[in-house]
Design a protein that fits this description.
The chain has seven helices and seven strands; from the N terminus they run E-H-E-H-E-H-E-H-E-E-H-H-H-E. The chain is an alpha/beta fold. The longest helix is centred in the middle third of the chain and has 16 residues, at 113-128. InterPro entries: Bacillithiol_biosynth_BshB1, GlcNAc_PI_deacetylase-related, LmbE-like_dom_sf.
């Protein structure tokens, strides 16, 4: 199998999770020429609205709007995400296939159990993928990404760092609106938390995050380990 080297590999439990949490960041780095890969762990087959087919089409459009290089999916069960060896190996396989510099996953504290489960699975796979003797189905060599960061979906948490997305907020909202089945009430849909001003709530959160760091819009992230500054506190070291 041809090796694909990704700069960013972002995991979500369902299509639209990544867009909600870090769509602006994905668009910003893609626009800068970085290779961004999205991986959805499930097909969201139990979603209250839409179908698997419509969700896949919406996910493809959303990724295209953000400039994502490739979007892939695993076939893990919706509402059946648990910390199993099968799930860990499947995610570790993706990490070894795309060999990312940085990995993103949902923050573990979230009202939706699948988001927390996705976070735990990715954390385990992040470690296991770097073990040479750990076996994955495709038999790719071990790969240790440099960092694992966590984005917020439903929650509002104090971030460890923020990324300025002021110039990419409109593109993020466009990607969310691509999920018409999820965020709009249609003739055959039912009301859910997503159909009641959810995109506006995400925009408000990103605006508040931006205000915290002196920007118009920002996305907040968390990390399990301290960040290392690559420049001096008062400017570049030259």
């Amino acid at each position: 199998m041809e090796t694909v080297k990704a700069d960013i590999l972002a995991f979500g439990a369902h299509a639209d999770d990544i867009e909600i949490g870090m769509g602006g960041t994905a668009a910003k780095y893609a626009a800068a020429g970085k290779k961004v890969i999205f991986c959805d762990l499930t097909k969201a087959e139990l979603s209250s609205n839409g179908t698997v087919a419509s969700r896949l089409a919406e996910a493809k459009e959303a990724a295209s709007l953000l400039g994502v290089y490739e979007r892939v999916g695993l076939d893990l069960p919706d509402r059946g995400l648990f910390l199993t060896e099968e799930a860990i190996r499947a995610v570790a396989e993706m990490i070894r296939r795309y060999r990312p510099t940085v990995i993103f996953a949902p923050y573990e504290k979230d009202r939706h159990p699948d988001h927390g489960a996705c976070s735990r699975i990715v954390q385990e796979a992040f470690f296991s993928a770097g073990i040479r003797k750990y076996q994955t189905p495709g038999h790719e060599g071990a790969h240790k990404a440099s960092r694992l960061y966590f984005y917020m979906i439903n929650g509002f948490h104090h971030p460890d760092f923020c990324i300025d997305i002021s110039n990419f907020m409109d593109r993020k909202k466009q990607s969310l609106r691509a999920y018409e089945s999820q965020f709009e009430i249609g003739a055959h849909s039912v009301a859910t938390p997503l159909t009641n001003g959810y995109i506006e709530a995400v925009e408000a959160r990103d605006r508040l995050m931006g205000k915290e760091v002196g920007r118009t819009f920002a996305e907040g992230f968390l990390t399990n380990v301290p960040l290392v500054l690559e420049q001096d506190l008062i400017g570049d070291l030259e």
